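Q: Here's a chain of 296 amino acids. Please give me its 3D structure as C-alpha cells.
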Amino acid sequence: MEEVQKKHRLEQKDLQNKITQKKKSATKKTRKSVNNECAELERQMKERQDRELLELNGELPVEGKDIEDLSPVESDGKDTKDADTHFEECNVDPSSKDTTPQNNARKPNRQKARLARRAAEQEATATQAAKEAANLPNLREQERVLMSNELKARGLVEQTIRSDGHCLYSAFADQLAQCDMDITQGDDTVTQPAYRIARHVAAKYIANHSDDFSPFLEEPLEEYIVKVRDTGEWGGQLELSALARAYEVKINVLQADGRIEKIEPDSARTGKAIWITYYRHSFGLGEHYNSTRRVP
C-alpha cells in the first residue's frame, strides 16, 4: 500500500509540473481550453488512482452477486415439529427412533464464507504487491548515479542543501553568493536569512506582476503570496521564474536524465548564470533542489 501511495504522489507531482507548463504556454485565446484539458487530466488520474487503491484493498464490487446473498440463511422450520407427532404420522414407534441428529444441522452461512474468501483474496493481493515492490528498481540510487554523471560531464560538483521546504530558495541564495551577487539588492537593513530574503523577493515580484502569474494559480493571488513569503511551502517553476526576473540571472535546473530547464530573465543585463540540481526521488520530502560548485 505504501509503495502504491508513493507512486501516486509522484504521479500527481509530475502531472502538476505538466499542468504548470501547459498553463504557462497558454495564450488568452487558448487559456480556457488548456484549463479544461488540465482539469480532465486531473480527473482521469484521480479516477485511475482511486480504482488502483480499491483493487489493492479488494473493495471493488463483485459482479453478478445479489445483495440478498449477504443475509444469513435461516432454518426452514421443519425441525421444530413435535417428535412424537412426527413418528405417529409415520407409524413409527417413538421409542425406536434413531437418536442421531439429522434435520437439526444448519445450512452453511454464505455471508461468512464470502467474507472469508474476500479476506483471502486481499491477503493474496497484498502478498503479490509486496513481491512486486521488492523487484522494483531503486529509483533513489539510480537518480543519484545519473545526476553524478551529468554533473561530472559539465565540470560541476554538488553542494548539498538542507531538505526542509526552503531548499529552492536556499540553493538560489547559495548560487547568488557564488556569483558575488548581493541577495539584499543593496538594502543593508535586511537581516533575515538568505533563503527568507529570496522568498520575500519572489513574493514581491509575483505580486507586482500579477498578470504574468495569476493565470497559473489555483488559489487567490493574495493567499499564494502569503504562502511564498511567510511559510515553508515548496517553491517551483513560478518562483524560479520570479527570482530569475527579479535578480536578472539565468537559472539552469539540471535533472538526472540530462534535461536542463532554462529559465531566462526579461533582461540579461548582469550576464550571470547559475546552476542548481533537481531531484524527484532521492530525498525524504520528495522533490528537492541542491546547489553546485565549479570543479577547480
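Q: Can you summarize the key feature?
A: The beta strands are 156-159, 250-255, 260-263, 273-283, 286-294.
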